[in-house]
Design brief:
Chain B: It holds the Pfam family BPD_transp_1. The structure holds 3 protein chains of 3 kinds. Chain A is an all-alpha fold. Chain A has 14 helices and no strands. In chain A, helix 4 packs across helix 14 (258-293) and helix 5 (84-115) runs parallel beside helix 8 (156-180). Chain A starts with a helix and ends with a helix. Chain B has one domain (62-283): MetI-like fold (Orthogonal Bundle), CATH 1.10.3720.10. In chain B, a hairpin with a 7-residue loop joins strand 1 (39-40) and strand 2 (48-49). In chain C, 48% of the residues lie in helices and 13% in strands. Chain C has 18 helices and 14 strands. Chain C has helices at 2-26, 62-78, 91-103, 116-124, 132-135, 173-178, 187-199, 213-227, 229-237, 245-259, 272-280, 294-298, 305-309, 346-368, 385-395, 404-407, 410-424, 430-443; strands spanning 48-54, 82-88, 110-114, 152-153, 156-157, 160-161, 165-166, 169-172, 203-205, 284-288, 311-314, 328-332, 335-339, 399-402. The longest helix of chain C has 25 residues, at 2-26. Chain C is globular, with a radius of gyration of 25 Å. The chains are: A mainly alpha, B mainly alpha, C alpha/beta. Chains A and B meet through helix 1, helix 2, helix 5, helix 6 and helix 7 of A and helix 1, helix 2, helix 5, helix 6 and helix 8 of B.
Chain lengths: 294, 293, 445
């Protein structure tokens, strides 16, 4: 094997066999990879084009064509439609607060369930699992009346509590698979060293799981960022609403301004795109940090 | 060791915040849903207790069973699609050139909200000037079907965007799981002369097993209570051909003002999820959990 | 140190949760604390806040939104002690939220409602307050006959209508001219028009039946023209059966139109919005829709002038041997304003509604192209011809049948809409269609 392509080949799909067959397989793999990549990028391009059209063009032109006069004014319309800056700030802080709380609390629970010994741990795990099985719409009326009695309606706390509670089960589930696979030696060694449980958790276990933490953080961010049913139900003042509400600004009683909705969606995807690109690299760094300890 | 790891105070400190939150925010609604299911209630005033009438009606409601069947089909397809996602994650997690870039690009669609995805696929499936039918016409299909209007096709036409929407989610989890496998194991196997497929099958797969089991549960439960795209793209139609349990629950509770019946559907959905999860746990149970060593 | 910080964080969280979960019991003392959340400051200087929830967002219902804001501003200037607090949601979310709010008895002081079947549960649950006193006051005689009745139940009126619509068949004059077609007067002529258009490869009718009420319009008109307005009205209220020969014939005619490819391809999977675009871009020749679409055919600058100039309308043609009358329309009031029964500022809310309805009537035609439910003096306004013609038609209408899905109770309305989709999709026979209707309506939900 020549060194140039040897290393990717060994781990590529079917990289054994002779050099020629390997090269063809390798090329095929790349053709497929690139084709899929183009397909996956297509929605973003489509959304951009969509956001530059008016209603007529949205329905008449082929989806992947740019209109004669790109309507950049759609973005102006979105930006001047009032409150978008407030919505934006709310979206950012609510998403960050809810995501951070979820990931940390879920890690604590998962650690206690998978690594510590106590009666009822599997029952508690069961409780968390059942919690992800209820359809959102079943919960709206009870939750509203509960928050109403607690005076938390029209208060972002109601949103954060709901986001944390509803994303907690799925976050725990994802963490679970990773925690089960952590080597036992980690605890043993640190207990012998006289480490407290807290210290072990924060200094050793959390860094070791940073790749899955980044994964769950990405998932939580996406969910929280795009959520709108709870915002609409619990929040009535503009000062606490989030970006997803911005879309509604363009859905009228009898008509809908699709271009402006496209522009809103485009604006609102950028922050999570950045967050995603940043956190996505953490997934890889995680093992590096973990393997030093392990 | 055991003493430290079963310190009650610490356990309480770690578990109680989450547990209390879940009990307050999720369990109260679940219990109330269970109760509403036993009542006749249009959502206004106080509910009238009617015992199991709603459930009795539900058992005979063909529209409900159709929607349940559609949900089960979706769960089945979601479960099967995991194999594909795992394969993609394996390729992305291997050390091929540009894997990092590919990974990022592959996951971008998962950032899109359901609103955007629904609009995109409505344009793809549009009967006359949609992308799909334009393509079919250009390669010589005379009269391509109206995908979202044909009762026989609509459900499967909807499955594609739904599965696609969640692809990123599972690929991301698998990717993290595979990246978590210590490189030393792979190196060792390679020295022993194992090829890529053998490494994937004998080393990566078993070590990612716990994660895979979890994703099966997530995929099945997520599918059983799936709502978003179906509601936006077809509203369960035409004539119930793409109705799923959650959309049926929604239209009963919020459109027909029958919150009691809707709650019964919601509670049934929960029971479906429980049974499915129990089955999956049973079927995938292994004696020992495998650990990296 | 580290430990302490975390303990504090956890404690705070637990407290927050307990506050959320157990606040339930703590608040029990004031059982009657429902009604508007922030209307309570009545005693201190008479400052009142009236919460107003509506569905005219700034971005797209621009005309309506502007009028709403102008009215509110003027009202607040006249009544400096009153603050009107708005909450805007889109149609779909608005209906959901109204439902959730009513379950907790937390309706806004003033809100938007639809007529008849939609508002019935709210009225029966004593959530809306009667506004008959307003009708006998300043607004006496201001409403178009037949509009407030749709909001009346058990002899009381529970909301004041803002809009009034009828549904003509709009058609593209250019297409008709191209194929030498005349506006059909009878259903036979109409079928010839459809046939000519399909033969020439033009989609005759734009219909987005994913939304279902769109197809309902077609059935209702056919039922009205064949079985007569009275039979249809009685069947909807449950006094007569949908198995009436004329009503079944109407269902058969619907399927005959489907068989003749009268509607655009894939209509059962298209939204009204998508179907409308087929008409707006000249691909489909006809479109049966409410008068709320008029701005798109007259003043909307986004739509090419050439197209707007070529839109005309005709009345749904009569059927030979049918009992219907060409001046009988399907339509009715759109949205209206209600005042919450449990509002703490009911009097102020009512005053605001009275003011709002009056001003809305003056401004909505010219400002938003909406036909208000209050009488409009068309002679003093400069309006596009299409509006004037339709105003005249409204005035000489022999009857106006309220949209079936609005008229029926919620559960029956759902059955009706689903059956419409099934009928158009040929998944239900006309007989089954009739039977399902009778079953749902007699169930009385």
């Amino acid at each position: 094997m020549t060194s140039g392509i040897a290393s990717p080949m060994r781990k590529g799909a079917e990289g054994s066999g002779s050099g020629m067959a390997g090269k063809i397989g390798y090329a095929l793999l790349y053709i497929v990879l690139i084709a899929v990549a183009v397909l996956q990028l297509f929605p973003l391009v489509w959304l951009l084009f969509f956001s530059l059209k008016n209603n007529q063009e949205v329905f008449d032109l082929p989806p992947l064509s740019l209109p004669m006069n790109p309507r950049w004014e759609n973005y102006g319309k979105v930006w001047s439609a009032g409150n978008i800056d407030v919505y934006f700030v709310n979206s950012v802080w609510i998403t960050i607060a809810a995501t951070a709380l979820t990931v940390i609390i879920a890690s604590l629970v998962t650690f206690a369930i998978t690594r510590m010994k106590w009666k009822g741990s599997s029952f508690v795990l069961g409780l968390f699992m059942v919690a992800m099985m209820i359809p959102v719409h079943s919960t709206l009326i009870p939750l509203f009346s509960m928050f109403n009695k607690a005076n938390l309606i029209d208060n972002p706390i109601s949103l954060i509590l709901t986001y944390v509670a509803f994303n907690m089960p799925i976050t725990i589930m994802i963490l679970l698979g990773f925690y089960y696979a952590l080597p036992k030696e980690v605890e043993e060694a640190s207990v012998i060293d006289g480490c407290s449980v807290n210290r072990m958790f924060f200094r050793i276990v959390l860094p070791m799981t940073s790749s899955v933490l980044a994964t769950t953080a990405i998932i939580n961010i996406i969910y929280n960022w795009n959520e709108f049913i709870f915002v609409n139900t619990f929040i009535s003042s503009d000062e606490f609403k989030t970006l997803t509400v911005g879309v509604q600004n363009f859905i009228g009683q009898y008509t809908t301004d699709w271009g402006a909705i496209g522009a809103t969606l485009m604006i609102s995807i950028l922050p999570i795109l950045l967050a995603f690109l940043f956190l996505s690299d953490r997934i890889v760094e995680g093992i590096a940090a973990g393997s030093v300890k392990g | 060791m055991n003493k430290v790891m079963s310190n009650k105070k610490i356990i309480a400190l770690y578990v109680l915040p989450a547990l209390l939150l879940i009990l307050a925010v999720v369990y109260i609604p679940i219990i109330l849903t269970g109760y509403y299911g036993l009542t006749k209630w249009n959502g206004i005033g106080s509910p009238d207790y009617i015992g199991f009438d709603n459930y009795a009606a539900l058992l005979k409601d063909t529209a409900f069973w159709n929607s349940a069947w559609h949900s089960l089909l979706l769960a089945l397809f979601s479960g099967l699609s995991l194999i594909l996602y795992l394969a993609i994650a394996m390729v992305l997690a291997s050390k091929i050139k540009g894997a990092n870039l590919f990974r990022k690009i592959y996951l971008i669609p998962m950032l899109l909200s359901s609103v955007a995805i629904a609009q995109l696929w409505l344009r793809i499936y549009h009967p006359t000037n949609g992308i799909l039918n334009s393509l079919l016409e250009s390669i010589g299909f005379d009269n391509p079907p109206a995908w979202l209007a044909e009762p026989k096709l609509v459900l499967f036409a909807l499955f594609i965007p739904i599965l696609w929407q969640y692809a990123g989610f599972y690929i991301l989890i698998y990717y993290a799981a595979l990246k978590n496998i210590p490189a030393s194991l792979e190196e060792a196997a390679k020295i022993d002369g194992a090829n890529a497929l053998q490494i994937a099958w004998k080393i990566k797969l078993p070590l990612a097993m716990e994660v895979i089991k979890v994703t099966i549960v997530l995929a099945v439960v997520g599918s059983l209570k799936y709502f978003d795209l179906i509601y936006v793209m077809t509203n369960g139609g035409p004539n119930g051909a793409s109705e799923v349990m959650a959309s049926y629950m929604y239209s009963e509770a919020f459109k027909s003002y029958d919150f009691g019946y809707g709650s019964a559907v919601g509670f049934f959905l929960l029971v479906f999820c429980l049974v499915a999860t129990w089955l999956i746990r049973k079927l995938t149970a292994t004696k020992d959990t495998i650990q990296y060593s | 140190m580290f430990k302490k910080k975390w303990t504090t964080l956890m404690l705070t969280l637990c407290l927050a949760i307990i506050a959320a979960g157990c606040g339930n019991n703590a608040n029990n003392g004031g059982a009657d604390t429902n009604g508007a959340a922030n209307g309570g400051s009545n005693e201190s200087g008479n400052k009142v806040t009236v919460n107003f929830m509506h569905l005219w967002p700034e971005g797209v219902s621009a005309g309506q939104n502007k009028i709403v804001n102008q009215i509110i501003e003027a009202y607040q200037t006249d009544n400096p002690n009153v603050t009107i607090k708005q909450e805007v949601l889109d149609n779909e979310q608005y209906k959901n939220k109204l439902k959730v709010l009513s379950a907790s008895n937390q309706l806004p002081d003033v809100g938007v409602t639809w007529a008849a079947g939609f508002m019935q549960p709210y009225v029966e649950g004593n959530l809306f307050t009667p506004v008959d006193d307003l009708l006998s006051g300043e607004l006496n005689g201001k409403f178009v006959a037949g509009t407030t009745e749709a909001y009346a139940m058990n002899g009381k009126t529970y909301a004041l209508p803002l809009e009034f619509n009828i549904a003509p068949v709009y058609y593209n004059k250019a297409i008709f001219e191209q194929y030498g077609l005349e506006v059909p007067q009878t259903y036979e002529q109409f079928k010839t028009v459809v046939k000519t258009l399909t033969d020439n490869g033009v989609a005759p009718i734009a219909l987005g039946n994913k939304d279902r009420w769109t197809g309902s319009l077609w059935y209702m008109y056919l039922a009205d023209r064949i079985a007569g307005q009275e039979t249809l009205a009685k069947a909807i209220t449950g006094e007569a059966s949908f198995t009436d020969a004329g009503l079944v014939k109407a269902a058969e005619e619907v399927q005959a139109l489907v068989d003749g490819n009268a509607f655009v391809k894939g209509f059962n999977g298209l939204s009204n919005e998508e179907a409308k675009s087929e008409f707006l871009n000249g691909k489909a020749a006809m479109f049966l829709m409410g008068t709320w679409e008029l701005p798109n055919f007259t003043t909307n600058e986004d739509i090419p002038q050439e197209f707007r100039d070529s839109v005309g309308f005709f009345k749904f043609p009569t059927v030979d041997g049918g009992k219907g009358n060409i001046d009988s329309w399907v339509g009715g009031p759109g949205v209206g304003l209600f005042v919450s029964e449990n509002s703490e500022v009911k009097e102020e809310a009512k005053k605001f509604v009275e003011y709002f309805v009056t001003k809305w009537g003056e401004q909505s035609v010219t400002g938003a192209g909406v036909i208000p439910a209050t009488k409009v003096d068309t002679a003093t306004l400069e309006l596009p011809q299409l509006y004037i013609d339709l105003f005249n038609e409204m005035n000489k209408a022999s009857s106006i049948t309220l949209f079936a899905d609005v008229q029926m109770k919620a559960d029956a309305a759902e059955t009706h809409l689903n059956q419409i989709q099934a009928l158009f999709g040929k998944a239900a026979t006309p007989d089954l269609f009739a039977g399902e209707h009778d079953k749902a309506i007699s169930a009385g939900k």
